[in-house]
TrEMBL record:
Organism whose genome encodes this protein: Thryothorus ludovicianus
Lineage: Eukaryota, Metazoa, Chordata, Craniata, Vertebrata
Predominant cellular place of this UniProt entry's protein: secreted
Compartment(s) where it occurs, according to its Swiss-Prot or TrEMBL record: Secreted
Name of the encoding gene: Ptx2
Residue ranges crossing the lipid bilayer per the database entry: none
Name assigned to this protein: Pentraxin family member
Amino acid sequence: DLYRKVFVFRKDPSDAYVVLRARLEQPLHNFTVCLRSYTDLSRPHSLFSYATKAQDNEILLFKPKPEEYRFYVGGKFVTFRVPEGRRDWEHVCASWESATGIAEFWFNGKPWPRKGLQRGYTVGATAAILLGQEQDSFGGGFDLYNSFSGELSDVYLWDTGLSPDKMRAAFLSLRLPPALLSWKSLSYEVKGDVVVKPRLRE
């Protein structure tokens, strides 16, 4: 249980990452991924990377610059522009549904305009899920200059699209439905220079 704790990625650039283990029984037709990050990086960096053998960017949350997030599904992406960071914690949730191809993006508890992405696609279940690096091959192929440096917390993955109430609950760290990946019962393995520390502030 990592409640009120964070992963600190100490080096920049870094070869470190955290492997997450999720119990996925079948491919995903809907999902929501949420996380909180704190960094002063201005270069591109990867936050959440979910790769299958067929597609290295099966699900990817990527920040090419401070005022932009890219949300990938099946190798294609949509861009969400956000206010230039005030060097504070940023909470994001991204959800996607295959039937409509609707990609939803929530930033610090508020929804951004929805976009279309990969309608009819299915996300593979046999995945390597990493924090802090962007996979260019299954479980590897990292570019150090896409690595994350800073603090990550409150990582979740659900096999459904969350309701607006639950999206806001995720931002506020309130009670959440059972998840494939849950910060409160996370199965993970640290590779390299990543330290688990208490969160410094709420």
